[in-house]
Amino acid sequence: MSTGKIGVTSHDLFPIIKKFLYSDHDIFLREIVSNAVDASQKLKTLASTGEYKGELGDLSVRVSIDSEAKTLTISDRGIGMTQEEIEKYINQIAFSGAEEFLDKYKDQANAIIGHFGLGFYSSFMVSDKVDIVTLSHKEGAEAVKWSCEGNPEYTLEKVEKADRGTDIVMHISEDEKDFLEQSRIQELLNKYCKFLPIEITFGKKTEWKDGKQEETDEDNIINDTNPAWTKKPLDLKEEDYSSFYRQLYPAGEDPLFHIHLNVDYPFNLTGILYFPKIKNSVEIQKNKIQLYCNQVFVTDSVEGIVPEFLTLLHGVIDSPDIPLNVSRSYLQSDGNVKKISNHITKKVADSLNDIFKKDRKDFEEKWDDLRLFVQYGILTEEKFYDRAKKFMLVKNTDAKYFTLEEYEAIVKENQTDKDKNIINLYATDADAQFTYIEAAKAKGYDVLIMDSQLDNHLINHLEQKTPTTKYVRVDSDVVDKLIQKEELKESKLSEEQKTDLIPVFNAQLPSTGVNYMVTFESLGENTQPLMITQAEFMRRMKDMAAMNAGMGFYGEMPDSYNLVVNTDHALIETILTDKDAKLSDKLTEVKAKLQPLFGERDALEALKKDKKEDEVPQEEKDKMTEVQKQITEVNAEKEGLLKGFGKDNQLVKQLIDLALLANNMLKGEELAKFVKRSVDMIK
């Protein structure tokens, strides 16, 4: 037996390897099993080249637990190691046997996983001691046992071993004893080794017998050595893709469709990506794409290898050309990663376009589940937008689908305003905005349904891309002003009548932290007497603020609406007539008080004309202040009279409640009062 020191440059390196080499301790199992698979793949390569002439036999990698001895053992029947190879590959940290083997057999080698020669040392993260018992495949080789207790000291001795290959025996430390539990190891094998190219055996299969689970004589093979993504697309049927998806996500809902990646130049990339159904709510689940390197699970955090929007997809990507750090747990940025990312983006966009052109009806049926993904891609990836605009769909209130180009051709003639802008009208809730939709349709306009949580951002993005196309929500203004084609008609009401009506309606508007502004439009005798609208800009800013904390200024502002009074409607004339009948004398008195005050104010204004502020005598300034104060007091008296009239006027209240009801803004006690009042008015 010989002893020695492992070839490390510092005694401090071993604790670093033991504690910090990998971000997750459980990664050790992947590394040790991967090494065992590498050893088996190497032997298959040597056999294929004629350098190994023996029988390959069973190449399964076996994982076993000995609870009494507190050991976890990984055994393979692969290439094995001689004493010289132990000293070369194990005792010199970071000298990778895989790299040397690949250089020699780069044209014949089966998939070799290891790259850095450090994977074996991950075993010390969970072990007090690690033994290697190995017998090389080489003729005349002697078995050796290497032992180390997690420090640079090791022992190396000749032992008896019946068969070629390597056993890695890990003496699990007390604080890591959960790695001696069957369920824990099964869980990790399923996570990291589910698709390794060599069979991995862990225990025996069980079956339900006599009211309990009993072991059978059949080995429990935990992996699929030939998963769907390693096969050619021509060799797979639709049911194969569906079956593989259920294998990846047993509890998942069936996907919409899939894309099979199969690239061998200028880089190697295989995989299958699935489009899940994404409903119209915040249920986006990222980290569903699994990244593999030669069928070894690496990570499900793939933001570094695919654009952000593609992280919404499910499936598998496998590439030996993706550069990985020493632990294979984090991606390193380089030009190759960018090329792969760009290719995946292009492949996804081209595949969607092919599906769209091949079976548009099927594509339209799936669009509502697909649109959130496409919109996310358009908003976050410029190159995807350039391709996606060919197949991105919009849907109108009649449930008809159009591409952006098709829709422009349909609405261009009738929905171009006087400034040559195409106005795309849209609704976010067909039921709540029904009245406004019908008013727009009566004018011959078409209305889109845009109820996705990303539509607000998408609208802004599309308006930037096509500045002559504007998106206007159908309830953001009266129908004649949504698409202005000519000057609006003059109101029948005088400015004085409008001024009088403002406090009349303000007296009955809700005081619930919402701001209302009374405005006047000439909308025709057959249009509703009152309408409630919300300005497009402010509503859009508030909607975006709800999704973006950085826009908190808009989110904190109260909601603001316009109460639009139709000056052409007979009921507005009725209110004015009633107002004159009840307040004529009092308003005349107020007007009599105001006229001399206005005259005095005008005279004072004339005196200071062409004078600088410091040239105006203080007496005149004081007099102006006093006159303005009196005007304010008389106006307050007038406003009080008008508000008192409005507050007691059932017709005013009824019309406001009807407008609120049309916008789904009348609820609770106020709705109950409205119903009772309506019944009373009918009697």
TrEMBL record:
Protein known as: Chaperone protein HtpG
Keywords: ATP-binding, Chaperone, Cytoplasm, Nucleotide-binding, Stress response
PROSITE patterns with a match to the protein in the record: HSP90 (PS00298)
Source superkingdom: Bacteria
Pfam families from the UniProt entry: HATPase_c_3 (PF13589), HSP90 (PF00183)
Lineage: Bacteria, Pseudomonadati, Bacteroidota, Bacteroidia, Marinilabiliales
Family under the similarity heading: Belongs to the heat shock protein 90 family.
SUPFAM superfamilies to which the protein is assigned, alphabetical: ATPase domain of HSP90 chaperone/DNA topoisomerase II/histidine kinase, Ribosomal protein S5 domain 2-like
Organism of origin: Ancylomarina longa
UniProt binding sites for ATP: E31, N35, D76, M81, S96, G97, T166, R328
Gene Ontology MF terms in the entry: ATP binding; ATP hydrolysis activity; ATP-dependent protein folding chaperone; unfolded protein binding
UniProt cross-references to InterPro entries, sorted A to Z: HATPase_C_sf, Heat_shock_protein_90_CS, HSP90_C, Hsp90_fam, Hsp90_N, Ribosomal_Su5_D2-typ_SF
